């Protein structure tokens, strides 16, 4: 036995869902070729059995020849042995192909998640990633596993059709025309099934994400009495998922019923026509038995073909989800030949928005749409590639590690790590940073103060407490340029006022950028840039903009009222 999965899954062709499935086929092509050969032998041996039984009836039973009967019965037995051996080996290779594909998909998912790294949560929900690694692997593995059976079914249908045409042109034509019509009738149900399955899997990924969020923040939710609200939201979404599953099951049930009903009607038609030919003397009794056996045999291959169409349709849905993951790119990397960064602080510029951040100044970005402010922050920190510059040099020309050391972006999505709180804050002037972030009361309430062990993601703290600790960690790093995105959105007004008044003095002589529409923070900014539709349309102090720019005043007043 070979160990699974392989050490290296290879480089996937993810230009489209179809290309990805074809790449998966090529990846196991050697074992798949063997299993296809065994599948053809397995199916064709079953297809030949009715012919041998028909001959045994005509020569042994109708002709009353015991020797002929025994000989042809032995031939049927031998064919059965071949069928059994081929079926066992085919199943073994098919299972191997399923496992190789399924767990190769897990490897692709894990490798790509590690490659994208910190950018992954911003671009794809954790529930969707988990869904790919848990449920989609089964669909992709099943699509590869059924290939050998599907090709064997096609070969068997061709063999049976050729035998029937050679025996009776009329019945052979019925089968030759009827089989494609049956497949076409079933195929009509595959498109709505595929659409509903895709909708179901999308909801499933979102619900998984919500469940993970609830479990992660359960202690905090209980502390603020919010578990019932989140539970109600989860209950509502789970009911929507159940309804979507019922819709998928409804179409699937119709498909299953069609796969049984249509071949059954087709079998009845062939037997009726065959009986008429026997009565007319155009067929022997043995040939009628054989024709009945052929038609009855055609039911499993037809179901295999419709099952293959169904599984491939479902696999395309799963492949599209995997393609979306594989298309993600990590945050920009360092250039091959980086340019040295300037020794002295320089201005940061974002040409796309027209923003210029002067060194040593506390600059606030007040955006009518908060997403615009966050996007500018990501460009200034080179979390996304752009034309942003430090001085006269594009950020993309600098070594990324050195840029990260000098320009720090602190987001609300950042996590606190498990371990002693002092280590989680990163060392440095911790006490001063805690005071600036108005977080002294958090530390004073802990049993061992800064040496207290905290859980991953700081689950024992409320949302506002986590935010203040994240701000303290960013201040401890003491970068040349600090970019903060909504650093006070989860704290009360009194705490926010303390942070706003302390932030500027704590960062004297260094560059600070704050993306916010909070009047308490904007009041203490040296310079405010108002952004609308992604562009800076006004600059000045908070008071100047409040009296001279009505759109700014409306944005800030709305924030103050909320």
TrEMBL record:
Q: Which residues cross the membrane?
A: 32-57, 69-89, 146-165, 171-190, 260-279
* One GO term describing the cellular component: plasma membrane
- Molecular function via GO: ABC-type oligopeptide transporter activity; ATP binding; ATP hydrolysis activity
Keyword ATP-binding on entry: no
Which stretches make up the ABC transporter domain? Answer: 323-558
Where does the protein end up?
A: Cell membrane
Every copy of the ABC transmembrane type-1 domain together lies at 33-313
Give a yes or no for keyword Transcription regulation in this entry: no
Stated name of the protein: ABC-type multidrug transport system fused ATPase/permease subunit
């Amino acid at each position: 036995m070979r160990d699974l999965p392989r050490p290296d899954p290879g480089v996937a062709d993810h230009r489209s869902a179809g290309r990805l499935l074809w790449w998966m086929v090529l990846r196991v092509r050697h074992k798949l070729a063997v299993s296809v050969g065994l599948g053809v032998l397995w199916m064709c041996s079953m297809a030949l059995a009715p012919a041998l039984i028909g001959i045994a009836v005509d020569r042994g039973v109708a002709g009353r020849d015991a020797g002929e009967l025994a000989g042809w019965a032995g031939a049927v037995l031998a064919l059965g042995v071949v069928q059994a051996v081929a079926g066992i080996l085919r199943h073994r290779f098919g299972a191997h192909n399923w496992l190789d594909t399924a767990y190769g998909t897990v490897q692709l998912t894990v490798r790509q998640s590690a490659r994208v790294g910190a950018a992954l949560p911003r671009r794809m929900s954790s529930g969707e990633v988990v869904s790919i690694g848990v449920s989609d692997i089964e669909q992709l593995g099943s699509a590869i596993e059924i290939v050998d059976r599907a090709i064997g079914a096609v070969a068997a249908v061709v063999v049976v059709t050729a035998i029937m045409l050679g025996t009776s042109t009329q019945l052979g034509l019925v089968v030759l025309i009827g089989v494609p019509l049956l497949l076409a009738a079933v195929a009509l149900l595959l498109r709505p099934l595929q659409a509903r399955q895709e909708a179901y899997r999308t909801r499933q990924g979102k619900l998984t994400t919500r469940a993970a969020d609830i479990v992660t923040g359960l202690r905090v939710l209980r502390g603020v009495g919010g578990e019932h609200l989140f539970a109600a939201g989860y209950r509502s979404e789970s009911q929507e998922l159940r309804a979507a599953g019922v819709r998928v099951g409804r179409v699937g049930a119709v498909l299953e019923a069609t796969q049984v009903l249509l071949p059954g009607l087709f079998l009845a038609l062939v037997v009726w026509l065959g009986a008429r030919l026997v009565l007319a003397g155009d067929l022997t009794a043995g040939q009628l038995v054989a024709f009945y056996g052929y038609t009855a045999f055609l039911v499993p291959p037809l179901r295999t073909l419709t099952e293959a169409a169904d599984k491939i349709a479902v696999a395309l849905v799963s492949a599209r989800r995997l393609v979306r993951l594989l298309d993600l790119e990590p945050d920009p990397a360092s250039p091959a030949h980086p340019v040295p960064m300037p020794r002295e602080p320089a201005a940061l510029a974002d040409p796309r928005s027209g923003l210029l951040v002067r060194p040593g100044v506390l600059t606030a970005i007040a955006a009518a749409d908060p997403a615009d402010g966050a996007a500018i922050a990501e460009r200034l920190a080179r979390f996304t590639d752009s034309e942003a510059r430090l001085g006269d040099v594009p950020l993309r020309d600098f070594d990324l590690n050195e840029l990260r050391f000098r320009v720090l972006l602190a987001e609300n999505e950042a996590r606190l790590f498990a371990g002693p709180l002092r280590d989680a804050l990163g060392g440095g002037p911790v006490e001063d940073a805690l005071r600036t972030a108005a977080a002294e009361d958090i530390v004073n309430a802990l049993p061992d103060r800064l040496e207290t062990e905290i859980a991953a993601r700081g689950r024992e703290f409320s949302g506002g407490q986590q935010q203040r600790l994240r701000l303290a960690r960013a201040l401890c790093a003491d970068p040349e340029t600090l970019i903060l995105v909504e650093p006070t959105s989860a704290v009360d007004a009194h705490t926010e006022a303390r942070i706003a008044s302390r932030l500027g003095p704590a960062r004297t002589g260094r560059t600070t950028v704050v993306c916010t529409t909070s009047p308490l923070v904007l009041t203490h900014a040296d310079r405010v840039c108002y952004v609308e539709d992604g562009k800076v349309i006004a600059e000045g102090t908070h008071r100047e903009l409040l009296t001279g720019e009505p759109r700014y005043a409306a944005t800030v007043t709305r924030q103050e009222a909320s």
